Each structure stands twice: as structure tokens, then as C-alpha cells.
């Protein structure tokens, strides 16, 4: 590492929007940076649902962290799992070694939360990582393949029923994308089932969809979802999830595919660092430092912090990026002997997409829905994709899908199914019993 | 299925080049077609090695079979595993049902063969399916990530040693691609290891690489491989493969990554149908029918058949496609009361690529190596990719990679590792022991 050997070491845990922004913002600082992530790639999370529904390839929205930071010579990247943070010794403990830091930025993100019902997870996967997206894609596509093979109507119906739990942005986007997949793309590809009979249910415990928007926009989003063929069930609680069924307010509904988009819980690293809130998010100081430890900052979805209006800063990519840059700035200040500054969140507006030509927007009080919201969403997401190559290809994929209603990335991978699936398959008599010979031929 | 209910049913097993060509060629025949494949996609196999080495995404070279055949209304597609063929009852038995056929085309393809040493497979995966390619990609990329973390030189060396067994086209292409990945793409992305120190060994039991070409072209290919930094070991036998090592003529070589490209064995369906050769390939009549069963034809890599010069027809995509079209023609003839005709293989030439600007070509006696062979290879492969969308995107990826030496699709997925890997990880002390604190910081 040559001449910079003596410079202070900043360890960054997590290569998401927050961690990567922090690393970038330290490019001219007189520090060495060591970024640790459990995967080798940065994911553009807002488009994960498009991978889960076969519109984009994983590589369209993910890039090796090493490659993103290749020209920033003061950064070392490793792919490791952080097991522990030793605040007293100032060491990060990974599965393979201990790394001593001078400054630490923890950007561990969040996972989906089952509100204490973790036994639901195998039956209702969430959507946070590329692997989650590939698993959901496998389930969604396999359900249609199974429906085409079934002979009895109830089972076919169950295979063609998709339940999405939670009507935040991920839930809304996923529900809209599955409805479009069924009603447009798959329509003419099956011979025995009519993909138009697909049921997509979006279930929400609260009184409206996209609750972080105004009531008017929520209403607009609900209408647009219904136009795409999504059944929106508000004020409905999920009381059980199991092998190919879900219980809504105690009533059982058969559905091969259940997707969980109902809640988040912060990375377990939050608890290592200090006091947390109900969602496991770390309570940090207004300057993002961990109480009692000025050398440690935590950023992104894993922290609970208020904006200047005393509203909680939302768990979105722009907030994480702003925090990442702020944490870097605080370190530069400390190197100059100055105190860290409080973080201020700048809300640039919110956009959600629902489907083709459908979305809602709230940009500094300017609120609109429908085609222009969708267009704004598409342009802004294209613009923010890391690196040009992806932008060009994603643009091609989108343009193509827009014109021809195609979904190009509909590959079912033979990834070994989770243990629970194997059990589920065995319980499903269609998979193991041989039916009486069908007279397909004569 | 409407008005065509009474038409004879042709069942096609396998959606590779052979099966798909047969289905296409039956588009105007008065038959119903039922194509069965264990996956939902057709793969452009000649480019699999580019997925395995991170240059292309799975969706660039694979397409849902349903989508390829969507407009051919006489075809039904199902994703099922064929367990048995009952020749007497004329039924194909899948895991979920029995399907009665009037005509049957079996295009089951081939898998890699370990020549009776199946216990080597977990340590030396082969490259036949998309899943194989993703598994090899995971291993290759993970090896570099591990090398960057190791502190002791022998282990680092082992992680940076890649052994490819077998110098047919797949072995040569894979070896060239890994050498390029290491020496060009990864070069400036690591801080602790020098990717230039990567060793890529191509091991071949026979006396030359690409033995299906002339001696002059084999010699040219070997030189081009060596220019890319591949060590070519001819007349060398693999005598053992195990957890992170390979034995070459009895001598142990530590290598995290071993890739098997040494031999093929036909689909087990061949044995269901009749007599087979040493490689498990079905011995069919000259007209592709199964002895004693004119209603059954077998095509592609799973059959052994000679061309008009008494040379065996090679296991390549053009041969499989020609057989698929021929089988369809034979069925049309039988429907008209005519006898099936013998199959004649038309050899249009052979091309192999080795790396950037490197390849060899043998087109009807015109033999050349180097840049123009590579260019011919690239143009022909682009042209034959199924469907324009892929062609456009693959062209973009290739152009980009050519100009900037990038490999865009370098994603390590968290696919649960095979059992053998878990064992290997546990045996690897670097993964479980904590080292003494490294003084990275001060």
C-alpha cells in the first residue's frame, strides 16, 4: 500500500448506496479506506423488482464493488461477512480476520421483517438482494409452468394466485409488474391455461397504498393498480402463511406464490453498536455518530434519525447517499481537528411506479399520477443507474419491453430449492404420483 | 386445441438446437407437437463459456422455449422431467403424467463424463447448462476474492491457479477467457494480489489441442493460447481430483478451481431406447429412427451416426439442427405414406475462438488462424443467436468488452454452495480461525 501506509484507516461496512457514497466522498481525503461487503456487488435496489419479474438481468442493476472503485487507489475492497464490532479495541471482526480501524462507517442496511413470525419466511420470501430477486423470479415463473400442467381446477387456480403482502413501494411495484407479466407478456404463450385468469392480490394492513404519499396520490395509485388487474385489499391482516396458502383475517386463500413486502428490520449490526428502536434501527446522534464513539458513524436504512421537521428520514436511496457523503465529511472535519456536524436530510421528492404508463410523483409539492409520473420515474432511474453500460442496456430492454410487451429474462434456474420447497413439492401429489394416461394423443 | 384435436401428436423431448429445429420444421405439418424440456429455456450452448467467465448474462444466450414458439400454434410446451419412455405403449412418462405419442423425437443431448470417476464432479464441474455456467462463474470469481484475503503465499497461489481439463473447444475457450479475465479485466481491481500472477493450465491427455482440426491449426491454437498466458500441458493425464487439488500424472497440484471439459456421455434416455456405444450414444438407423420403431427418431448429441465419408457426425449445434429438420421431414413423409429417408450431414466448416483477436477456422478447406478467425467466429455467432434482442445486446457487450477490457457480469451469487464446498470451507482455516489482529491501521 506504499506511501500511504501511515494514513488513518477508515473501515466502511456495506457496499450499498450509503457505503459506496461514503467511499467515493473520501477519494481525496488523506486516509486509507477498507470497504467490506458480504457480496461482491453493489445493487441498484429500486429496480430489484424488475429482476424478480423477469424484465431485467441481474447484471443490468448490479456491478462488482471492486469495479466501481477500481480507479480510487486509496480503497481496498473485501468480500467478507462482518461478525462483530469491537468498539473498545476499535476492531471489525470478519469471519476470516480482525481489522483495526481509526474511523468506522457502518452501512449495514435492512432486511425484511416478519414481525416475529420468522417461520413465514420460507413460504413468503422478501425482496432485498439479488438472490431474493432470483428466488422470487423462480417461484413466479414456475407457478405458471405448474398451472399449465395441472388438470384440476382448484390447483390450477392456486398456482395462478399471487399474493403480495404490504403496499409500500416494493409491494406496489411487484404487484403491478406481475399483473403486467400475466396479462400482457404470457398471454399467448400458454395453450392450456389462460394467463388472463391470473389473480394478483395486494394485501395491506393499513388504510391505503403507498402511505408515505398524500391521500390523493394513494387513491390515484390504487386506481391505477386496479386498472392493471391487481386486487387491492386494504385494512386486511395476514394472520398466517404456510405451504401454498395465506390466511387473510383468518380466512384461508390457496396461493402457490406469496411475496413479503410488509416491513423492514435493521441489520443486526445496529444492536452491536448501541440502543435501537422497534425496527431494530440504531439511535444515532444528530451528527450520525454512535453515542460515546465519535469515531463510529452509522448511516442508511439501519439508523433512526429525524429530519429538521422532526419527521423520520425515510429508508430510501437518496437519504442513504446523503448520509454517506455526510459521514465522509465528518471524518474529514475530525482529521482537521473540528467537531462533526449534524446531518440534514434534503428531500428531493418521491416517485413510485406501478406499471406501464402508471405511477405517482410528489416533487416538492408538485403532485401528479399516470403517464408523466411513470415517465419521470423511468428517466430518473435510468439516469441514476451506476455506469453508462447499464444505462444503455436497460434503456434497450425497457424500450423493447414497452413496444412489444416482452419480458426477456424469464429464466428458471435450477438453483437448489430451499429445504421448505422440497417438502412442499413432496406434499404436492401432482409431482410424484403418475396420473392415469391422459388422452392427449387420440 | 380446438379443431386440430384429431391430428397425430408428435412429442419432442428436449428443447436444445435439435428439438427446437424439429418443432420449427413441423410448423406447417398437420400434426400437434408437444415439446418437453426439464428447463424452461433454450440455451445457445456455444456461448456458455462467456457466461461462466462473466462476459455475458444468462439472458443474453437463453430464451424461454415458450417464447421462441409462441406464434407456432400447433405446439404445446411443458417444463417436465422425462423419467421413462414406454416404447410398447407409445408413452412418454414424466414426473407428473404419461403422454401418448404417435411420433416421438428424442433430443436429450449429452452431459459431461468423468469416465467412471463421478466422485470428481463436485470438485471439477463441467459446462453444459446455464446452472453449470453460473456455478463455474461463482467459483472463478470467488477464488480471486479469497486470494485477496489470504496472507500466506501457498494458499494465495492455490486460489489463483485454474486447471481446465480437456482441450476441446469448450476447454480452449474457457482457458482463454479466464486468462484474459485475469490479465486484462481484473488487473487493476485488486490491491493485495497481482492478478497477473494467475496461472491457467489447460491439461489434455492427447497430443494436441482442438484435435478435431488439422495439425497445423492445432499448433496455431496452442501458440495463441500461450500468448494469452495459458500453460498448455499435452499428453498429461488427470489421475485424481479432490478438494482444491488436482493430480496430473500422479503429481499433486494445489488449485482452488478445476473445470472439467474432458468428455461427454449421452443422455440416459439413449439407453432406454436401444443399443448404445462407449459414450452412451444411441445407435440409430441411417434415417435416424430407432431400430424396430419407425415412429421414434433420436437426434443430436445423444446419437452415434456416420456421415457419407464414414466419419462420425460431430456433436455440434449445426449437426443437431440438421438432424432436427430431417426428423421433421421424415414424419411428414410417413404421414404421406412414404418411407423415412437417410440423414446426410452437411459440414459447413468449423470455427473455434481462443480469446480476443484469437481463433482458428476451417471452412471447406480454407484454413486460417488469428484475428480473422476470431472475427469470423464473432460475426457468425452473433448472426445465429436466437432473436434480435439478444443480438443487439450481445453486440453491445462485446463491443464494450473489446474496447475497454471489461467483464460486466462479474456477480457472485449466494446460491447455497454444494455440500462439498461447505466441507471445503470448514477445512480451510482462513475461514474459521481468527488471525491475530492485522496492523492494517497503524
In short:
The structure is a homodimer of 442-residue chains. The first copy, chain A, is an alpha/beta fold.
Low-confidence stretches of chain A: 415-442
Number of strands of chain A: 25
Order of the strands making up the biggest sheet of chain A: 5-2-1-9-21-20
> What's the overall average pLDDT of chain A, rounded?
87
Shape of chain A: elongated
Q: Any idea what the radius of gyration of chain A is?
A: 23 Å
Helix content of chain A: 25-40%
Compute the number of helices of chain A. Answer: 14
| Quaternary class | homodimer
- What is the end-to-end distance of chain A? 75 Å
Structural class of chain A: alpha/beta
What characterizes the major β-sheet of chain A? 6 strands, mixed
Q: What proportion of the residues of chain A form beta strands (DSSP E)?
A: 15-25%
Largest interface: A-B, 78 and 78 residues
Amino acid at each position: 500500500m506504499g506511501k500511504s501506509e501511515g494514513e488513518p484507516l477508515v473501515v466502511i461496512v456495506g457496499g450499498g448506496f450509503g457505503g459506496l457514497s461514503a467511499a467515493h466522498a473520501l477519494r481525496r481525503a488523506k486516509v486509507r479506506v477498507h470497504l467490506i461487503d458480504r457480496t461482491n456487488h453493489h445493487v441498484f435496489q429500486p429496480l430489484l423488482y424488475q429482476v424478480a419479474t423477469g424484465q431485467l438481468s441481474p447484471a443490468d442493476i448490479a456491478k462488482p464493488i471492486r469495479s466501481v472503485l477500481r480507479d480510487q487507489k486509496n480503497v481496498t475492497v473485501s468480500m467478507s461477512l462482518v461478525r462483530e464490532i469491537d468498539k473498545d479495541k476499535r476492531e471489525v471482526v470478519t469471519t476470516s480476520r480482525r481489522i483495526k480501524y481509526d474511523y468506522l462507517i457502518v452501512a449495514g442496511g435492512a432486511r425484511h421483517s416478519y414481525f416475529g413470525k420468522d417461520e413465514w419466511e420460507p413460504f413468503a420470501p422478501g425482496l432485498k438482494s439479488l438472490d431474493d430477486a432470483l428466488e422470487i423470479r423462480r417461484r413466479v415463473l414456475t407457478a405458471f409452468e405448474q398451472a399449465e400442467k395441472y388438470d384440476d381446477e382448484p390447483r390450477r387456480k392456486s398456482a395462478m394466485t399471487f399474493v403480495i403482502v404490504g403496499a409500500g413501494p416494493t409491494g406496489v411495484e411487484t404487484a403491478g409488474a406481475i399483473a403486467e407479466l400475466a396479462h400482457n407478456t404470457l398471454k399467448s404463450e400458454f395453450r392450456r391455461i389462460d394467463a388472463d385468469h391470473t389473480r394478483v392480490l395486494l394485501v395491506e394492513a393499513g388504510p391505503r397504498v403507498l402511505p408515505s404519499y398524500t391521500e390523493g396520490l394513494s387513491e390515484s395509485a390504487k386506481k391505477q393498480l386496479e386498472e392493471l388487474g391487481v386486487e387491492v385489499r386494504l385494512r386486511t391482516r395476514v394472520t398466517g402463511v404456510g405451504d401454498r396458502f395465506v390466511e387473510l383475517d383468518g380466512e384461508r386463500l390457496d396461493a402457490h406464490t406469496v411475496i413479503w413486502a410488509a416491513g423492514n428490520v435493521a441489520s443486526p449490526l445496529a444492536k452491536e453498536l448501541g440502543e435501537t428502536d422497534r425496527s431494530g434501527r440504531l439511535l444515532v446522534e444528530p451528527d450520525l455518530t454512535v453515542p460515546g464513539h465519535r469515531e463510529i458513524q452509522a448511516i442508511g436504512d439501519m439508523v433512526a434519525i429525524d429530519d429538521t421537521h422532526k419527521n423520520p428520514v425515510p429508508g430510501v436511496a437518496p437519504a442513504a447517499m446523503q448520509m454517506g457523503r455526510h459521514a465522509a465529511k465528518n471524518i474529514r472535519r475530525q482529521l482537521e481537528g473540528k467537531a462533526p456536524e449534524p446531518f440534514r436530510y434534503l428531500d428531493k421528492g418521491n416517485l413510485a411506479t406501478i406499471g406501464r404508463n402508471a405511477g405517482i410523483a410528489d416533487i416538492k409539492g408538485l403532485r401528479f399520477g399516470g403517464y408523466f409520473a411513470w415517465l419521470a420515474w423511468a428517466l430518473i432511474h435510468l439516469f441514476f443507474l451506476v455506469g453508462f453500460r447499464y444505462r444503455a442496456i436497460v434503456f434497450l430492454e425497457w424500450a423493447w419491453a414497452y413496444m412489444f410487451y416482452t419480458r426477456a429474462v424469464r429464466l428458471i434456474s435450477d438453483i437448489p430449492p430451499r429445504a421448505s420447497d422440497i417438502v412442499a413439492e413432496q406434499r404436492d401429489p401432482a409431482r410424484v404420483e403418475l396420473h392415469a394416461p391422459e388422452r392427449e394423443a387420440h
